[in-house]
Amino acid sequence: MAAASAVQRLLRTWLKFSAADKFDDATWQPEAAQEEKLLEIVRRNEQTTFGSEHGFDKVRSIADFRAAVPPGSYETLEPYIERMVRGERGVLTADDPLMFATTSGTTGRAKFIPVTPSYLHEYSHGVHVHTYRMFTDYTDILEGKLLVSSSSDVEGQTEGGVPYGAISGYLTRTQPSAIKRFYALPYELTKVKDVESKYYLTLRFALPEDIRTVVTPNPSSLLLLSEKMTVFAEELIHDIRNGTTMDRFLPAGVPARPFTSFRADPVRADELERILRSQGRLWPVDVWPNLRILSCWKGGTMPLYLRKLSGPYGDVPIRDLGYMASEGRGGTPLVNSGAAGVLNISSHFFEFVPEEERDDPSATFLTADQLESNREYFVYFTTSSGLYRYDINDVVRVVDFYRNTPVIQFVRKGQGMTSITGEKLTESQVTGALVDVVDARGFDIRHFTACVEWGEPPRYALYAEVGDSMTRDVCAEFVRAFDAALCGKNVEYEAKRESQRLGAPVLKRVAGGTYEGLRQKRVAEGAPEAQVKIPQLSTNMGFGEGLEVLEEVDVGVPVGS
Amino acid sequence: MSAFPLAADRIAEIERMFAQVPLLSRLNARQRGQLARRATTRSYRPESVIVRQGDTSMAFYVVLSGRVRIDREAEGGSPYQVWEAGPAGFFGEMGLIDDEARAATVVAVEPTECALLARWDFQKELRDDPDIALALLPVLNERIRNLNEQVAQLAGRVREPEAEGFR
User: Fold this and answer.
1) Highest-confidence segment of A276-285, A488-497, A499-508
2) Integer Cα distance of B116 and A401 in angstroms
3) Domain B8-154 in CATH: superfamily?
């Protein structure tokens, strides 16, 4: 234990001098720190195709950069990224990508974000600041183990032979072995795709250990982990007692070694058995009494799940994991209160547009030092992954200031997009899926709106006015077809459905004339009749309130089954 | 970039204002000066929200000029105004020590300037000069005594919360 504490102190010291102090100093003067970061990115990439086309060699200030590079999106950068995916060098970035991080795009295809060594350094910088603060606030974390979830970084290879997948898997795989020994889960677990197996094996590794912290982006995963703990309690205790792993949970196509190399631990099995007999269940609060902190997303749509964590996890403090995406890390939480983090001014260069100016061609682009408290802004990233003035379509709110640097909280995705579990579903994807299945199968759908419906798991409610041919069975067919079509259009929706973090959609048939009534209501509220559009993907979770639902068709099956 | 960005005259101005803040009033001029050196300042337009109830709490605020209104929203209820504060008024002081979300919403009612002191900067000064903590103890003790009296009085009737004590 003393050795583990010494390691934590040593690591903390390294994190302080390698990352935390630089970040901390920068917070006094965010404008200077941001210009320094921007010019570092520009200088490094001025000989690239994009840099040459946009005169990076003449950029000496933030103003120069703005004059040289228009704000853009994935679509505007996609031609360059496609060249990188094909293996061309020096297109957006001077350094070659180690991998591509995949994330869902606004069109049918996945986005590929180049992960270069310099980008990885920027990304890890935020991770290191976060970890430094955790190690400072909780000094005995490494006396036990860390349960950190991650996904595979090698889902496939591009035409140019570069792997693509999740950046979290890359970080896990490349941890120094001295650090890996504190992780409860082996890297190989990222390769397991079957959800039941993944959760069983996660618990098979973690239950015998003294888990001190759990880090996973989505709090719904924490709930699922606690549920599976009880569901699989008997099997897990049996396996822990005997040093075995139930065959039915061993993954196919993945080397078995890390999943079968356990020692028998009858003492721990007895402890767990006692808890199971006395409590009637296994919960993290009982099996991991030294759990110090949880880290997961707390903003956006997460509060519903956070409220439910207090049962299985007791009063363990929860710290936000930070505003982050494959495209970059926006904020680093340094305290447990609320869901906000300090803007990562020493990681990337950020610009902001006031939320109300989003569609204004002359919108004001602001830097970190120009933000105001409690205002909402759209964020634009410039990073060493070759994203220049990149519109990530996220809205953040400034909740406080750390010295002169804004403390930001993720609020929601931008217009026309919903994301309950990270699926980032756009209206164009919903419309595309709807049109595909109606064209292919002749479903008589008159009006249609998908919107988020909370539950365990959450799902999409499909409000629809339908024709007479849409019997209950045909409606069920429609739901399955629509669900499958949506999977084809959005890789993250598909992943969330497969992992059961998103439930199957439910059709809610509403009476004829319902949509006309909605239109009339909008007009009565002052909207020009010709401009009234009832969305096919509503970001308003209260969309269905007050609508008369005649019938619900709940297929209730996982996708692909 | 580690130099603190405020000019000497601004630091002196903030130090003088800190002298009027009850929480800091028992510190000596040198100790208040140390804290003032670590402060930053921000300006707020009328009706702009400075901090919001339930949000992440990172700093202690002292009003340098202008006026703020402190609103608190009861669970499931509508906001009610708790208090107004002018120069030397303060809020967020409990966040210097603990790690709880903001307990009230603070709105500028006129053009307002505040000095902000970050939690870790305050704690660093405490570590460097434990006498600061000793000077704060009587103030905190007095607050506990007042709260105890309020609890006793609340046995029979509901009183409006006191101004101090919001994060």
Assistant:
1) A276-285
2) 8
3) Jelly Rolls (2.60.120.10)
A211 touches chain B (CB under 8 A): no
Q: Kindly list the distances between the CA atom of residue B85 and the CA atoms of A430, B39, B88, B90, B102, in Å, as whole numbers in the listed order.
A: 51, 19, 8, 7, 17
Kindly state the tokens that stand for B166: 């919001």
The CATH architecture of the domain made up of A2-118+321-413 is 3-Layer(aba) Sandwich (3.40)
Give the ipTM.
0.89
**Which residues in chain B have their CB less than 8 angstroms from residue A315's CB?**
none
Query: According to the model, what pLDDT value does residue A450 have?
Result: 94
A504 with A459: CB under 8 angstroms? yes
Q: Where are the beta strands (DSSP E) in B86-126?
A: 90-91, 105-108, 112-118
* A26: closest CA of chain B, how far (Å): 6
pLDDT at B162 over 70: no
Greatest Cα-to-Cα distance within chain A, rounded to the nearest angstrom: 73
Contacts of B57 in chain A (CB under 8 A): 335, 337-338, 400
Tally Cβ neighbours within 10 Å of residue B10: 16
For an interface test with A, give the residue of B4, B52, B56 to mutate (most A CBs within 10 A).
Answer: B56
Tokens standing for residue B29: 């001029």
Whether the CB of B102 is below 8 Å from some CB of chain A: the reply is: yes
Go through A355-374 and write b for each residue having 16 or more CB atoms within 10 A of its CB, e for each that does not.
Answer: beebeeeeeebbbbeebbbb
pLDDT tens digits for range A459-490: 999 999 999 999 999 999 999 999 999 999 89
- Boundaries of every domain in chain A: 2-118+321-413, 141-291, 417-554
**Mean pLDDT to the nearest integer, A171-197:** 90
Residues of A in contact with B56 (CB under 8 A): 333, 335, 337-341, 399-400, 407, 409
Q: Where are the domains of chain B?
A: 8-154
The nearest CA of chain A is from the CA of B100 a distance in Å of 5
* Residue among B11, B55, B68 with most chain A CBs within 10 A, to mutate: B55
pLDDT exceeds cutoff 60 at A559: no
Closest CA to A219 of A339, A109, A111: A339
Q: How far is B163 from chain A (nearest CA, A)?
A: 21
Cβ neighbourhood burial of A243 (10 Å; 0-12, 13-18, 19+): middle
Q: How many CB pairs under 8 A join A and B?
A: 81
Question: pLDDT-based confidence at A304, cuts 50/70/90?
Answer: low
Cβ pair A26:B1 closer than 8 A: yes
CB spacing of A25 vs B48 below 8 angstroms: no
- B26-65 pLDDT, tens digit each: 899 999 999 999 999 999 999 999 999 999 999 999 999 9
Partners of residue A338 in chain B, C-beta under 8 Å: 54-57, 101-102
pTM (two decimals): 0.82
**How far, in Å, are A20, B21, B55, B95, B101 from residue A339 at the CA level?**
20, 30, 7, 15, 9
